[in-house]
Design the sequence.
């Protein structure tokens, strides 16, 4: 495939935090298992999703709102963004090895 095609698009990750809630927008090349992996990664950081919209065609897109679980250590939006970026990079490595 030629460079610059749609599959070469960099992942788009936006995370905003306000009053213990996260707003997440995520878009990347569609990879198997991305939805549950993304949700589990955010939940491990101490958040539960209140609202989620996801689509898999032609790209994986995700918009969600999550609330921080009472008693969990505070996590800032940048930390969540970094975690999600490492998730999508890990998925790229898995795809390349298959």
Sequence:
């Amino acid at each position: 495939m030629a460079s610059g095609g749609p599959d070469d698009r960099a992942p788009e990750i936006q995370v905003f935090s306000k009053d213990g809630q996260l707003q997440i927008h995520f878009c990347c090349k569609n990879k198997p298992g991305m939805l549950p992996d993304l949700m589990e990664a955010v939940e491990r950081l101490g958040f539960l999703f209140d609202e989620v919209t996801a689509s898999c065609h032609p790209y994986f897109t995700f918009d969600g709102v999550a609330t921080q679980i009472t008693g969990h250590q505070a996590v800032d939006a940048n930390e969540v963004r970094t975690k999600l970026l490492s998730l999508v990079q890990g998925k790229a490595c898995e795809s390349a090895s298959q």
Notes: The first strand starts at residue 12 and ends at 18. Strands lie at 12-18, 21-29, 47-55, 59-68.
